[in-house]
């Protein structure tokens, strides 16, 4: 069989992410290891998954909602804000950690051969484990203000979670591989993480961007995270509004007919490019590390 010599797999000739599925047991072990290492010696442990987003929410709500008066122009602004923060935090944490995953596991990579894709994918799963308690808080807050979602809205939440996970995996594979050769890739990712929060309608409503960009608004919508946050708002924020608060401009036009399919295509392209880059560069990981 091509890529195999006497039962051994030649490095760089594996099946990429398909090997991760085949090594699910190893993936589970890596996820457990990452969680244990992250909270080793920590007093609060997994509770940091609640503390950090809640602190972000308070800062943004006070600065933008109260001081800049966005709360009065956006009904249930607290739900609107927190729904966006939860999703963006998941993406930024997954991307940041997957970028460092290969370098952080250099000792293991130098000693044995196993599918290198396991490390970025494991960090995305760890971020998903942190995402779950934040979602519980979000759902609890929504229920307090009368959240009554439809089946389609609940299905949209699952779809967006999968899309953002795939997007973070694709970018994590790409930057994780490049970071082995150029360590300043982490600085580029730090800038991306900073931009994502402001380049998606988390702290403000999409209509503000449309008024400012005019005919160039479509460029803003090409960002998959923009669409992801808008769908999250549709699923969590819109069902909390009263009948007289739901207006035509609650969600962007063509969100589901145009921008969601476009975002899914962009996400798949990013995953393909990330896997391609990773496979090309992973052959010499052990030597470079």
UniProtKB/TrEMBL annotation:
The ABC transmembrane type-2 domain is annotated at 44-281
| Keyword flag Cell inner membrane | yes
Q: Which PROSITE patterns match?
A: ABC_TM2 (PS51012)
Keywords associated with the record: Antibiotic resistance, Cell inner membrane, Cell membrane, Membrane, Transmembrane, Transmembrane helix, Transport
A Pfam family assignment: ABC2_membrane
Q: Does the keyword Transmembrane helix apply?
A: yes
Q: What is its main location?
A: membrane
The family this protein is said to belong to: Belongs to the ABC-2 integral membrane protein family.
Protein name, UniProt field: Transport permease protein
Highest taxon in the source lineage: Bacteria
Supply the InterPro entries for this chain: ABC2_TM, ABC2_TM_bact-type, ABC_2_transport
Q: Which residues form a coiled coil?
A: none
Recorded source organism is Pseudarthrobacter enclensis
Q: Enumerate the subcellular locations listed in this protein's record, separating them with semicolons.
A: Cell inner membrane; Cell membrane
